[in-house]
Design goal:
By secondary structure, the chain is an alpha/beta fold. Helix content is about 35%, strand content about 20%.
Length: about 350
């Protein structure tokens, strides 16, 4: 029997999670929420996703019909027909929503905009899938934390310990945001460490990691500059690290000089060229010629598509919470195969 999934917040992340869930043969979308009638409603109608209002307010619900959209009720009505809700609403409203989900008696997943302290659990597929099996709720960590986890967890699993320093060169806004900056500046995050490193430790506390971050005037991707200290006797070489990542899920390793893909703009063009929906890149992109292991110190760069790398993680998290798949690799393979078929429709 298919898992009934509700999406609370049908925006940049919500619309992507909805399509990824819709692609799975063991899940179905029972509804998506919007705060008010808007373009996103047109997209939901085309996808045949039932529309619900974010609020349990008769006046707000009726506004949808007045704009020509069928609204099936408020958030409470949606929760009543769902097994699990994926919360993709704006950050900082999680605590109030969590109380609603718990009152409705359904399972819940938040995104990285919420704090680990609020959800008490966090998730990435490769780091702690099993620890999230059959729990009531969790948080899929941010795009940057997900990206760090993808490449660092295989290293940790091989080495048994890892110490990491990373600098996040962050995009200033998503492509659809027109009210954020900086426009002509580099803006350091004046909090050390930035939240990204400590956030990795919510899913893999064994990794010692610190991070700094700067925001730059681009909307395309994030870029990470990473220095990892490996233990003595690690037994790795530059080439074996590269092969490790090539054989790990959701990582793409390419040679910038050979392919001509040497910037984030070209990475995004690559995603469009291979026909990805919305030009998304769920994988973490690592430049092969930017990887160097010097003794015990590993240097590398990776690029993160902020709108999409967490999308398949949400699908895997649904299976973990619902207890339908305890093997993270099996879930990842199932998720990615279904999304790939969906992209090629």
């Amino acid at each position: 029997m298919a898992i009934k999934v509700a999406i609370n917040g049908y925006g940049t992340i919500g619309k992507r999670v909805a399509d990824a869930v819709d692609a799975q043969n063991d899940m179905e979308i029972v509804g998506v929420t919007k705060t008010r009638p808007a373009f996103g409603c047109d997209l939901a109608v085309r996808k045949n996703y039932p529309i619900y209002c974010t609020y349990d307010d008769a006046e707000k619900i009726s506004a949808f019909a007045e704009s020509g959209y069928e609204c099936h009720g408020g958030l409470s009505d949606l929760l009543a027909v769902a097994d699990i809700v994926v919360d993709c609403s704006p950050g900082k409203v999680g605590a109030a929503n969590k109380a609603k989900y718990e009152a409705a008696g359904i399972k819940w997943i938040f995104q990285g905009g919420e704090k680990h302290a609020m959800t008490e659990r966090s998730y990435t597929s490769s780091a702690n899938h099993m620890e999230n099996v059959n729990v009531n709720g969790t948080r899929v960590v941010s795009c940057n934390t997900t990206g760090l986890s993808r490449t660092l967890v295989p290293l940790y699993n091989h080495c048994g310990q890892l110490k990491v320093e990373c600098t996040m060169i962050r995009r200033a806004a998503d492509p659809g945001d027109s009210n954020k900056g900086p426009i002509n500046a580099i803006k350091p995050v004046l909090q050390v460490p930035s939240h990204h490193g400590p956030d990795v430790m919510t899913v893999k506390p064994e990794i010692e990691i610190n991070s700094m971050a700067v925001a730059v005037p681009t909307t395309l991707m994030h870029c990470h500059s990473i220095v990892a200290t490996l233990p003595e006797g690690h037994g790795l070489t530059t080439n074996s690290v590269i092969e490790m990542w090539k054989n790990s899920p959701r990582i793409i390793v390419m040679n910038g000089a050979q392919t001509g893909i040497s910037t984030t703009a070209e990475v995004m063009e690559f995603a469009r060229d291979i026909g990805r929906k919305w030009g998304d890149l769920h994988e973490i992109f690592v430049w092969e010629d930017g990887v160097k292991l010097d003794g015990n110190t590993l240097y590398y760069f990776q690029a993160i598509h902020q709108e999409s790398d967490v999308i398949p993680e949400n699908v895997d998290a649904i299976r973990a919470l619902m207890g339908t798949e305890s093997d993270w690799k099996a879930s990842v393979a199932k998720t990615d195969a279904a999304i790939s078929r969906y992209n090629n429709l």
